[in-house]
Amino acid sequence: MALAAWLLSSGFAHASTSQPPTLESLQTQIDAIKAKLLKPDKDGWDKLTAISGLISGIAVAGIGFYATNVYNRRQTAAESARKDREIQFAEIQTVEKFIDHLASTDEQRRKAALIAISALGNSKVAIDLAEAFKGPGSTSALTTIAATAPPEQAQRAVLALQDILSDLSARVVAIEHSGGGRGNGLLLNADGLVVTARHLLESDGSTPIYVRLPSGSSVSAQVVKEDNVRDLVLLQTQKQAVPPLDRTPSDAAFGERVVVVWIDPGPRLKGGRKLEVGRLLEATSLQTGEAPFRGVVVQVNAAPGMSGAPAVDSAGRLLGLVQASDQNGQTKLIPASDVFAFAAET
Description:
Layout: H1 2-10, H2 23-38, H3 44-102, H4 107-119, H5 123-132, H6 136-148, H7 151-164, H8 166-169, E1 172-177, E2 182-187, E3 193-197, E4 209-212, E5 218-227, E6 232-236, E7 257-263, E8 273-287, E9 292-299, E10 310-313, E11 318-325, E12 330-335, H9 336-344
Antiparallel strand pairs: 1-2, 1-4, 2-3, 3-6, 4-5, 5-6, 7-8, 7-10, 8-9, 9-12, 10-11, 11-12
């Protein structure tokens, strides 16, 4: 029945026509039927062949994209390397212009050269040169760079300053007083004499005092003498291997950079020794109890526990010990001249 229906649909039945099919028309229909029967269905390979053009196009596009990406990366790397070479060449040219100043024994010339190199956008080069050409001029330049350069370079300048001021840093100790006072002190000599601010030890004198040494260990200390007028106290602790302290008077003028080297005197040494860079402001009268005296004022980021810490000028010479700070960032120093005079008194 199915074959009959198919034959009817194919044109073999002409019941509705009055004329019988011719032999020629029948042969044509038979040939068409044979062709349909003999034509095979498409298999997977045929289908793959049909879409091979599309696949080839996608592959070519992918390879082209990859090749273009690789080329662009190489071009970017080459351009970056070229710019780096140009920067290095510009840095060399800059250094050549200032080499005579850098090699000079005139510290002011060296300082000016380093600051100029930094101002030209080469702070990193200036810092490296300051570490190479050490001296008061380099130290002074680093204090300026630390206060004016972008944060990353300013931090590098501070680290360079820590290296240059390592002798001073080795003298800074933390003062711990069971009566509640915490602060800093300055190790004066190898005999173990430490000077600090008297107000840190306000008590009846019976409470123990400890000094935390650069090694991190704490040792007991005894009061040798004190001066309520100058707010100073001299402590005796263990002998330490330190060289003599440079007592050259500072000639720093108004507006010059200063550095405070201190330790956070909390239960743990939080981050080790720290440096705060500021400016010298003006002399003022300090009132510490019995009588006023002339002191030094600096603009610096003060913090709790900084009392007794040494402040030095840009050449590394002692300006004084931190006494107190106000909310405006103005920090009063006990002058170095008073510190040395007090320590020398018998």
